[in-house]
Amino acid sequence: MLKCDRMNIVRFLNEPHYQTYLKGKECSYWDKDLNWDMARNDNLNEDLKSLAVDVASMSAHVEILGMQNAAELLSQCSDFALKISLGQAVNDEARHAELFAKYATIANGYIKDFSKTQEVYDEHFNNLNTFDEVFLSHVFLENGALEQFNVFVNTFGEDSLIGQIYKGALQDESRHVQMGIQYFKRKILLEDGFSDFIYNHLNNYRNILHMNQAAIDWFSQLSGISSEQIKDRIEKRHDSFINRMIKVE
To answer: Is 101:111 a contact under the CB 8 Å cutoff?
Structure first.
């Protein structure tokens, strides 16, 4: 049976997760004015058009996984405010998967096969056993995606359709990361030693959760930013992610 708190005991109006949920409602329809006629001949340099199809196809594969993870977390969560936020995240990830798949299909005729990328993450998540393990890996990967999406927006430009899609997805993913930080911040305050779980999990699964040097070099070539700067930005984002959770206010 799916979990949910007894509704007569629910008090959620002042919960941080509810405030995050409300922010999501405000931007529920950011994709409604996208001009899909641009997909067939996007406002990009010729050398970027094939790349746009590649990254859209890859993102479609990964966003499907994100949708599945959010749905699994939703089914296991009993906290009302977090549950409706996760329900919103499922919808967000479904939209991302749809938009990236639609772009690749219209621009290229079909979605390029990046199933091996999806399989790597599938294997990782299949080996996790608890809600906290899945949620931490999920939200940490979304935190890393923020840096990647920023690179894509800057590379493709906001005058392109693919750039607009990544910009919209970026704001959704930022909200998901905030949702995770709120959750783990509370767990750290309530459970002694929980910060050790976070450090150990991110360290044990570093190879899958952190961007490797080959990926850093690829993003450097794509963006024109040096590998050292990309790596520094990723490490700062990682440190910020941790510090925002463990900071006691």
So the answer is: yes
- Contact predicate 77/3, CB 8 Å: yes
Contact of 93 with 70, CB cutoff 8 Å: yes
d(CA 93, CA 74): 13
Residue 22: C-alpha distances to residues 25, 171, 182 (Å): 5, 14, 15
Q: What pTM does this model have?
A: 0.92
CB 63 within 8 A of CB 100: yes
Tokens of 78: 């009993």
Beta strands in 68-140 (DSSP E): none
CA pair distance 33, 12, nearest whole angstrom: 33
Residues 204, 133: contact at Cβ < 8 Å?
no
**Could you tell me the maximum CA-CA distance found in the chain, to the nearest angstrom?**
59
Structure confidence by residue, pLDDT tens digits, 177-216: 999 999 999 999 999 999 999 999 998 998 888 888 888 8
Q: Residue 191: exposed, middle, or buried by beta-carbon count in 10 A (0-12, 13-18, 19+)?
A: exposed
Helix, strand, coil shares of the chain as percentages rounded to 5?
Answer: 80, 0, 20
Residue among 216, 218, 115, 101 nearest 165 (CA): 101
